[in-house]
Amino acid sequence: MTNPSKTQRTILITGASGGIGEALAHEFAKGGAHLVLAARSLPKLQALARTLEQQHGIQATAIQADLEAADGAQRLFDAVEAQGITVTGLVNNAGYGLFGEFTDSALAPELAMMQLNMTSLVALTKLFMPDLRQNRGQLLNVASSAAFQPGPYMAIYYATKAFVLSFTEAIAEELGSEVRVMALCPGPTASGFQDKAAMHDSALVKGKRLPTAQEVAASAYRALHGGQRVHIPGAMNWLMAQSVRFTPRRMVTWLVAQMSKPVGA
């Protein structure tokens, strides 16, 4: 269904076809918001939209989007505008990581990751900001617990998430009470992320019980509506993020390397 009422909250969620994005869609739908779901896989989005409409009585619009493309953000914005939809909340969730040593990795997928994780996120935030401000809306940028320290074996991914965290906190201060802004910084989560990153052999995840995307999304939804600016789900993730403030930086990178390197390396 299209053209959600302009008097109703309408949340745009990128990367909504799976993982934390899909779980966040369920949380916002349960809260009564209409949704615009964006990702590469249109069939998955359409199926999710139908499910959310049936379960929660909201309107959900599926829009195919490739945010790794340089013009992907503008195309998504234009598609939303063309349908007459006013976005009152933006969830920049789309993103991925790549596992391996920087010297051995290919440049093209790393540049695509930077485009998706940072540039498209900034572009969408800029494009939709007038509507967010006018409607005293919400902005949720998905960063990571990786944002708090450098990350050997995932050097560029960690750096992109540090950018997202810094950017989000800065504009939150600028916007004050005009827009409710939060950076979500989950640790490793049971989702499709590990498949995309090819990191199943990393000591960060191998053999560990990870929180589900649904658990992370529920925690994030509560935190956003509770007024948090930065939310780190999980007590251990929170403690690790705080500990880097008091640890020599060279030791931090060594510790992260030990925690992240391939098991047996």
Tell me the count of domains: 1
Main sheet overview = 7 strands, parallel
Q: Find the count of extended strands (DSSP E, 2+ residues).
A: 7
Order of helices and strands: EHEHEHEHEHEHHEHH
CATH architecture: 3-Layer(aba) Sandwich
Structure, described:
The protein is α/β, with parallel strands linked by helices. The chain has a single domain, classed as 3-Layer(aba) Sandwich (Rossmann fold), CATH 3.40.50. It is built from nine helices and seven strands. Strands 3-2-1-4-5-6-7 form a seven-stranded parallel beta sheet, with helices on both faces. Helix 4 links the parallel strand 4 and strand 5. Helix 1 runs parallel beside helix 2, helix 1 packs across helix 7 and helix 3 packs parallel to helix 4. The N terminus is likely disordered.
